[in-house]
Amino acid sequence: xxxxxxxxxxxxxxxxxxxxxxxxxxxxxxxxxxxxxxxxxxxxxxxxxxxxxxxxxxxxxxxxxxxxxxxxxxxxxxxxxxxxxxxxxxxxxxxxxxxxxxxxxxxxxxxxxxxxxxxxxxxxxxxxxxxxxxxxxxxxxxxxxxxxxxxxxxxxxxxxxxxxxxxxxxxxxxxxxxxxxxxxxxxxxxxxxxxxxxxxxxxxxxxxxxxxxxxxxxxxxxxxxxxxxxxxxxxxxxxxxxxxxxxxxxxxxxxxxxxxxxxxxxxxxxxxxxxxxxxxxxxxxxxx
Amino acid sequence: xxxxxxxxxxxxxxxxxxxxxxxxxxxxxxxxxxxxxxxxxxxxxxxxxxxxxxxxxxxxxxxxxxxxxxxxxxxxxxxxxxxxxxxxxxxxxxxxxxxxxxxxxxxxxxxxxxxxxxxxxxxxxxxxxxxxxxxxxxxxxxxxxxxxxxxxxxxxxxxxxxxxxxxxxxxxxxxxxxxxxxxxxxxxxxxxxxxxxxxxxxxxxxxxxxxxxxxxxxxxxxxxxxxxxxxxxxxxxxxxxxxxxxxxxxxxxxxxxxxxxxxxxxxxxxxxxxxxxxxxxxxxxxxxxxxxxxxxxxxxxxxxxxxxxxxxxxxxxxxxxxxxxxxxxxxxxxxxxxxxxxxxxxxxxxxxxxxxxxxxxxxxxxxxxxxxxxxxxxxxxxxxxxxxxxxxxxxxxxxxxxxxxxxxxxxxxxxxxxxxxxxxxxxxxxxxxxxxxxxxxxxxxxxxxxxxxxxxxxxxxxxxxxxxxxxxxxxxxxxxxxxxxxxxxxxxxxxxxxxxxxxxxxxxxxxxxxxxxxxxxxxxxxxxxxxxxxxxxxxxxxxxxxxxxxxxxxxxxxxxxxxxxxxxxxxxxxxxxxxxxxxxxxxxxxxxxxxxxxxxxxxxxxxxxxxxxxxxxxxxxxxxxxxxxxxxxxxxxxxxxxxxxxxxxxxxxxxxxxxxxxxxxxxxxxxxxxxxxxxxxxxxxxxxxxxxxxxxxxxxxxxxxxxxxxxxxxxxxxxxxxxxxxxxxxxxxxxxxxxxxxxxxxxxxxxxxxxxxxxxxxxxxxxxxxxxxxxxxxxxxxxxxxxxxxxxxxxxxxxxx
Lengths: 288, 801
What we know:
The complex is a heterodimer. By secondary structure, chain A is α+β, with helices and mostly antiparallel strands. Chain A has helices at about 15-25, 35-40, 80-85, 85-90, 95-100, 105-110, 110-115, 125-130, 150, 225-230, 240-255, 265-285, and strands at about 5-10, 30, 50-55, 65, 70-75, 135-140, 145-150, 155, 160, 165-175, 180-185, 195-205, 210-215, 225. Chain A folds into three domains: about 5-50, Uridine Diphospho-n-acetylenolpyruvylglucosamine Reductase, domain 2 (2-Layer Sandwich), CATH 3.30.43; about 65-170, Uridine Diphospho-n-acetylenolpyruvylglucosamine Reductase, domain 3 (2-Layer Sandwich), CATH 3.30.465; about 180-285, Enolase-like, domain 1 (2-Layer Sandwich), CATH 3.30.390.50. Helices cover about 35% and strands about 25% of the residues of chain A. Chain A is globular, with a radius of gyration of 19 Å. Chain B has three domains: about 10-35 and about 500-640, Aldehyde Oxidoreductase, domain 4 (2-Layer Sandwich), CATH 3.30.365.10; about 40-140 and about 215-265 and about 270-305, Alpha-Beta Complex (Aldehyde Oxidoreductase, domain 3); about 310-485 and about 645-795, 2-Layer Sandwich (Aldehyde Oxidoreductase, domain 4), CATH 3.30.365. Chain B starts with 8 loop residues before the first helix and ends in a 5-residue tail after the last helix. Chains A and B meet through helix 12 of A and helix 5 and helix 19 of B.
């Protein structure tokens, strides 16, 4: 449980970080909260020669809510998300999801940027971001671009981020007032990744569903945002029949691997159950 | 002479803080401040570090080991391999079970993560780099994971070193992968009971391989003083004296030149009873280098290589009459012992005390047969917070009696009551030969049923079943057998399983007691002092308790199998009584009366009929160093080595209520009531803490713990990421109760309690889960009851969607 030898860098600005990243190429790794990378280093499954700590890049910190948009700096910790009352007011799903991640000690260090950028299908925030229609700000030598969370994940640990880019912030469109939301996570114990989890955001107009987005955690190589899941609710009263369709769509979209959390069929089934429960809870929370 | 004469009797009792007092744990002052002194806190001048190169393969031949690059790593001082240990004859070591275990893999590796080379370096970083730089060439061999395949004709032979032996320490064997057969009971009578039975039931019951997983992993610091030739070993040892003897035997060092010190230990649960290659390599390392060598496992090392528990593949059968009265029990066990037979049982008991399998029931005939086999898994087979193989036995009978209840259509509480050994039958000799000392099972069960409104729960369950909801009620009425043990039938490597206590009373009336056991969190410093306080009439706050240093403590067999109170606790009482007997003589001298004119009262001797004429223990202590009767030796101390006349038999009645989510397979423990009878209760708060801890471990085992291997012998989930150690969030709320049925043969009537909750708890949880499905004709479900397994049961019944 002792990492290999590495050199530690602590850039003070984003440009300095990008310079280091470009300089070291494959031999450099960014470290945010370190809760994915450090365990891998201790097992020597990851042996970076240069560690670039983003902890002192001030511009990566903070939560800003302006009119229609929430911008969260990549180095904002899960604890910061939980503790932000204004964020809870505008987008309560984030606190609900953050509270299911690991334990308080991890949440004090673990960052939202690391959680979404790492590409680990077990991480919770990617599906949450997909359900919220968020996009990620990527900053590299050739400038800044935005990629939608729904288009960001390619395979386990493979994302649209280029090696010399840094994910600097997350942009979330402010959800409609009174929207329904829920993150349902089935797990074996505190600190565990999900057996299956589902994030749901929906809005109702009178008795009819206006919009619905559903995304699943840890039941595939990437977070899964299947249009069909949400679509089966839109235009309905979100009654049992519509929910059953969404659940069926979720099960169909899930393609989990067998692991110690259970065989494939169980985990796909669990994805459906979580989706169904999340929809019901989201619906119950809709304020009109 | 009346320094405290103004105090009432109650106040004097309270001042003593003796047996029955819920005083706070003395050791917690340092533990809760983070000031404990654990092995990894030991830092000696010039200390270096060691760690293992471990095998990635479960079964392979070692073709070559190249240490050159490792030795070139800056800071690496030495790399040991089997070939280096051979000249010292230390490449293999004897196990407690009479087998041999490779210290460093000799020609072959037999399980994944087996120790192959030991790298010693200036610091942990250099050692880690050195471990990575050792180059080993392996040739894969066929892997044996399933114990059911071990005895097949064409099974790969695992232990080539032992293939030609007829006996590997525990009797005749019938196959190169066979370790022993243990056969007990009356087969003829049992067969007859089954032949004539109105009802029989049979079930395959696996008690899965689990790991005790103490919070602190295993480790040691070995330090050889080359000038004096004295070896000091600090280590996580549940039985430090036994370790000293083993080191002496293995290393050929005279025993008086070896000092073994077990400092504070962060939980043992059986995992820290045995000897591990790390200890041997550290000792060799310090002898070779002349510098102290520290070795401390990490979590993966601990779970994947040091002693596991259980892995009993059991088949249970019960014969009964139509009223559910049991007439016969038949058990077959296939025991997976891994690559080396290194289980920690009293030497003559290859399946430990498994023949307690008749449990709390008056069963006229029983027969048990156990086969132990080798597989390509880590060695072990220790008692994980239970007496030797008692949890396996108790789990089997508690499961089987439920299976029988379902078959004959009897309530699960009623069938137990019908089969209990009755209070008037004690002392009771079971058909498998155990002499139960005392018990009142019907009272315990009745009290629990009353406390939880059992009838109301069953009514609620019936209503829920109508609605398609799954609710289960699990009962376990278990009997433990602890306090190993009488030396006529219990020894470790030929040393009787007695234990010891030495008490020295100082002139001012405080005292120190040293014992042969070793606390790993049980609170010995608190409870032993209470026993001595009551016996000697000195305040427990003024009695220091020391264990774990073989240079100062009297020889004892250590702490496991709930033996500390039954054995060393008895030694403490006896040693104290010796002191009191001398004190009485001194008091008679002080008060100028005959010894027989004195009577004892809490903390003093009184002259009969003259209550104002007293000598307090404190006064007597001073007199023992100053004004003695003619011819009496000065001082006030005594030692007792206690060889128990019998085991003690704690028991309990547990009830668990669960609700099952049939869609996710999650099992929610709604209520758990544990009634324990451990005889005389020394410290009720510590007992409650022990019960809470034991129940939490039982919950972990029943609901999630399992060491899983893939078909090539790769261990799965050997870290706390996967291996289930519940947090406060998962842990249910515990309700506890008690009855008191003292042990008639123990000096203070105490029986031991630390392990009862694990023994009874596992069955109660598992029975509750199965009970939730009992109306759907389910008789057994394999542990651990993880969500996916429970859901698979729902799915099979068509209720999982």
